[in-house]
Records
---
Amino acid sequence: MAPSLLSADFADLKGELDSLQACGADLLHLDIMDGHFVPNLTFGPFICEAIRRLTPLPLDAHLMMTHPHRYLEAFAKAGVDGITIHVEATCDVGAALDQIGALGCQRGLSLRPATDLGEMVPFLDRVDLVLVMSVPPGFGGQSFDEGAPERIAWLKQRRAETGGRWLISVDGGINDVTGAACRQAGADILVSGSWLMKAKDRAARTALLKG
Ligand code: DX5
Ligand code: ZN
């Protein structure tokens, strides 16, 4: 279970990180938006480095960026454990994945709900994680794309057929109901933003997501 910090109270970052660790989060999902690949802007390596010093939880940076390759080294230096780029990015995606691995980070690849899964196929032999977007990237609090479980099931089958070892993660509109559907379809990791972060009892919601 991976909370997205997008809905966290950044005025109390330490308190939020402690709360997420206490409620049973397994890793933290950091949404990095560049104001170009998506209309929204969030934060970069500087804040990731501060988060790194505030929590022992593994960090996965989800780069919603047009030019992620320019910043991979900076995110690795900030201490994140995984870096996920988008297959729609304007860069040599294979080379960027190789660079993420060479920097000692887990290699993640994501795609928008509207992008054909076939676009991922050339890269599946060099990723550690596939992140299925179940909302159009850019904002928290959007509603879940009902097509996501089918895409997760397709990836699970593809992984079994090819002997892949990558994890399947899903991001966007995850709650107890949509999370259960994704788990059933084969998701290994559920990313949850607003539904989890706005809850009074985050531990109870974390337990629900873990099933
Ligand atoms: C969307 C982000 C997601 C999002 C999840 O662009 O990648 O991580 O913040 O938030 P919820 O769970 O609110 O959809
Ligand atoms: Zn995300």
---
Amino acid sequence: MLVVMKNDANEEQVQAVIEEIKKMGYRGVPMPGAQRTAVCIIGNKGPVEAMQLLAMEGVKEAIPVTKPYKLVSRETHPDSSIISVGDVKIGAGEPVVMAGPCAVESEEQALTIAGLVKEHGAKVFRGGAFKPRTSPYSFQGLGEKGLKILQKVRQETGLLVVTEATDNENLTVVEKYADIIQIGTRNMQNYSLLRLAGQVSKPILLKRGFAATIDEWLMAAEYIMSEGNNRVILCERGIRTFSDNTRNTLDLSAIPSIKEASHLPIIVDPSHAAGRRDYVIPLSKGAIAIGADGLLVEVHHDPSHALSDGIQSLYPQQFEELMGEIERLKQYL
Ligand code: PEP
Ligand code: MN
């Protein structure tokens, strides 16, 4: 249920509604909009009796929310959300490109790649310090040492950094160093991690589970938002299908589906979707052309010696080409 306040409702009236909802045994979450504030009722198991709320000062109407997710839903928040991180705005119309290696391997590697991607227009540097690897024998990341390298990248280049927290334990240290905290595909339904991610001070980049439906993905985002963190960015990174010509199958239809169902911004990771670098530019162009709010792309200056995902990492000159293509597409957006 969404309690929509009148245009001229004041803060006390909004608070009174939140108090009344609390007395009813639920939680009221204020959702300020361009025209008016709405209060979303969460915690109810079935329909809510709205009579007493409708009688309150400043209340315009009460609208039932039909979707199982509420805070992430466009029904409760018709305007698209813009997530501000430093001076970067995600979801504001200009595609935001996040680029860098799969994993932080050394200071020299990270600074070299960061310089290259910055030169060509990336706004955020990506690189894993804690790596979720399918095999326990693969490179697992540099851990906190990698986070310190990311801090240095931020200091030296001014780029923001996005990096993954893989479990409840490393979330705290990742929060200390990252500008955006990534939750990877394997953790999309790790509900205790999602709840903790809802309590941190940094925005969350929530990747789609490789076998998750759009509704399951949005419910995962709801876990984060229900704990109070409104800054959630969704990332489509390919799902598992019978098709084996690519590592995963990029579901571009997720972009209009998410735009319809939710106010949250959505970016696309073509690298983990394709698993091969020659498909990254065309998939990126497709994603931007149909409305993605940005890209998360793997780039390496020496992919044949990368410690992870070298075969899907763009060469620097391919990244330059990609940025040129995006620049050309912008006139049609
Ligand atoms: C990554 O972006 O580093 C990563 C591990 O991606 P995913 O969770 O999508 O596999
Ligand atoms: Mn990778």
